[in-house]
Amino acid sequence: MTSLPLRIKDAMSQQHSAAPAPHTAVATVAPRGDWWRDAVIYQVYPRSFADSNGDGMGDLEGVRSRLPYLRDLGVDAVWLSPFYASPQADAGYDVADYRAVDPMFGSLLDADALIRDAHGLGLRIIVDLVPNHSSDQHEWFKRAVAEGPGSPLRERYHFRPGKGAHGELPPNDWESIFGGPAWTRVTEPDGTPGEWYLHLFAPEQPDFNWDHPAVGDEFRSILRFWLDMGVDGFRIDVAHGLVKAPGLPDLGAHDQLKLLGNDVMPFFDQEGVHEIYRQWRTVLDEYAAKEGPEGPSSEGRWWETGGRIFVAEAWTPTIERTAHYVRPDELHQAFNFQYLSTAWDAAELREVIDRTLEAMRPVGAPATWVLSNHDVTRHATRFANPPGLGTQIRLAGDRELGLRRARAASLLMLALPGSAYVYQGEELGLPDVVDLPDEVRQDPAYFRGAGQDGFRDGCRVPIPWTREGSSYGFGSGGSWLPQPAGWAELSVEAQTGRAGSTLELYRAALRVRREQPDLGAGDGVEWLTAPAGVLAFRRGEFVCVANTTGEAVTTPAYGRLLLASGEVAETGGEAKVPADTTVWWSTAR
Ligand code: GLC
User: Fold this and answer.
1) Can you give the pTM of this predicted structure?
2) pLDDT for residue 46 is more than 80
């Protein structure tokens, strides 16, 4: 291959020293090293975003072709779920080669083109890093198994002899997040049943042993590979899981999934993870030092001016523990899963907002807000159902109610200080697909029972772009999960330019957010007096009111109406805010 762009060659051959090759594109947004503090970051799930080659599976070229849509939507950055070489036992979260693109998604050249085009449109690119486990088809693991007990490669994972007279029992009582034991026994090269290996997720996802120095060395090298490719940051998968308690002690409890989120587990949120992130931070800081201070470089190559970030997927028991991941010398952001798990209820929302802001203030990190992602039931469906059912629901509920609340919840989220995450399709108001036939389901959790519900396929159905055509414009050859009838009117085409559509609501909200300096900025809100079930807060010259009740309420009309998720009537200085509706006002004169 003589025609590889310089940047890919650099990344592949000089992983420790290469600087990104110059871009030629022109930026359309102002460069800022701290862009991420109030950024709106859009999650692309590459399998389900856009399919360029008609094989029914989304790909990087598909994403690239739709970047103008994301620019017009008004987001700042795009986070892509994994597109690395993978047998797809867990939709790409089982990585066989961290430096290669899976052929089903394209090639490194496609990744390079995507990053370049995104930068040219003023969008940043964040890639997903999966450091807790590899695929069982990763070279290290294949060799570890093939070489038998005593192989040095086995020390890079957690291999242990079993318990019981013949080693027939797992080494400890840990359960997989996807259900069943967290251990699988290998067959040794001589054909006998042998050692067991740890996998907190599917058996095809063996956990790395982060006490082994080769693991840390490898991941710092992988970071550099993608930084040299020009990415603007990393979303860290299972960031809370890398380090296990010494000796891998029994937990002494069954139904361990139910304990998650309440207790500190011997395999999650261990102190040792923070040292790893402090080391990773030095890698990013090194790039920042090389790339110069905030502001455009002399050639106007704004993406080379620092501002690269880490965001942690860390499911911890409390937001206060999550804050440990974003101390000044660790990561930049962490997803706020407490917020995602909160019901559409004013008192509960106010509490989680206050707690979040209080927890982040001492560490100086921005709060983040998120309502949906590829692991949970979409919020339009969660809010269509009664509260208390959790984040994995397989009931359609009251669709109209769910959509109304989802729109209101999104406007509330986008009014809060900090950074917000939008999952592809939520800007279309998509519901979860709750009635996928069993034979099309692919979520590994579904096949393991007794663990997570395995209903994640419902939020991963390819999104509709057009009213007509194969798979509503997702691609020319169908889609890997069937889309429901009736999605034509939810498509981008149908919603574009339609007054009051959810897509136009998001576009307007993101536009206002850019124009109103008080939105997104800062680290606090000033609560205003409001009727029961209503949240009202001021941020500088901006006021947000969210009515979470099923009845219309009357509030002061705080100023110039900027945006509302429903029809607001204003008379004589008062506003009638309908049920489940959020309103934005500007108080500027
Ligand atoms: C994270 C991902 C999820 C995946 C799991 C194992 O939680 O978001 O999709 O199944 O990690 O990698």
Assistant:
1) 0.95
2) yes
